[in-house]
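Researcher: Next entry in the queue.
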Amino acid sequence: MRIARLLTLSTLAFATPTVAAPPSKPAMKKPTPVKPTDAKPNEEKPFDLEAETRAWHQKRIANLTSEDGWLSLVGLHWLKEGDNRVGSSEDSDVVFPAGTPAHLGTLTRKGGTVTLTVQPGVSLTRADQPFTAGELGASEGEQDVLALGSLRFYLIRRGERLGIRVKDAEAPARKHFHGIPTWPVSAAWRIEGRFEPAANPRKVPVPNVLGTVEEMTSPGTIVFKVNGEEYRLDPVQEGSTEPLFIIFADLTNRTDSYGAGRFLYADPPKDGKVVLDFNRAYNPPCAFSAYATCPLPPPQNRLKLRVEAGEKRYGDH
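Model: Structure for this entry, 317 residues:
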C-alpha cells in the first residue's frame, strides 16, 4: 500500500456532529490462575490484549525507526521532462542534503522513463554494485535503490508524476525520535463488526495530500456499534487474502490525535465478521515527514465520535 507526501498537511475540517461517548468498558472478571499441572500440552495461551498490543507497537516503532523507515525520509523531488541536475548545490534541480557532492549527476526524464548519468568521481552503488549510468526502476525494491554513504534514493510513480525519494539513515528525525504517546489499551475498543460484502469489488475514490484522488478497491463495508450507535467504514484491499486497510478520521483529530486521520489494519472477514482493534490505530507517515504522500480518509470514513485508542499526536503534528 503506497503511503507518502510532498505538501504540508493541514488539519481536516469536520462538521460539528453530536459527539458519541466513549464505549462503556465491559465488566472484567478476575481470571482464575492456571496451575502448571492444569494446563494441557497443546492448549493455546489465553489472549492477552495488553501484551499483544505492546508487542505490536514495539514492532511498529522498530520499523519506523529503522535505517530506511519513514523517519529517515529527507526529500521528495518531482522530475520535469528532460534533464534534472542532481546535487547539493543550490542551482541543482534536485537538491540533495548538505555533505553530498555538489554535482552528483543528471536525471533525464523521457515520458515514463528516467535515466541517471553519474558525475565522474562520485561513488554510487545499486544492489551493492557500482552504478555510473542507467535506467531507474520504480519498484521501490532493493534492486532499484541507489546508495551514497548514508543516503538512499529511488524513483517513485504517483499517477503521471515521477519523483525521487531520498532517505538518510542519519536524519535528525530518526536520531532524535522520542516515542509516540498512546491511549491506554482498552478491551472496549476491540470491536467486532459485521462485514457487508459488495456485490462486486468496487472502486472507492481516496484523496491524498498531493491534491489528487486515487481509485482503490474496496471489498465491502464494516458496520460496528459504539454505545448502541452504528458506524460504518469502507476498507480497501489489494487482494482477497490481504488484510483490510482502513483510512479513517474521528473527532480526536481536532486536539489529541494526528489532524489528518489515522490508519488501521484488520484481518479479512471470517464468518461475516471483522475485528476492529482500534488499539492498533496508528499515525500515517505524514505525521513524521513533510515528504510523504499519504492517502486521506474518504468522506464516508470520517467518524462522528472520539476514538480514544491507539496512537496520539506526535510532537506538534
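Model: The longest helix spans residues 49-64.
Researcher: Noted, moving on.
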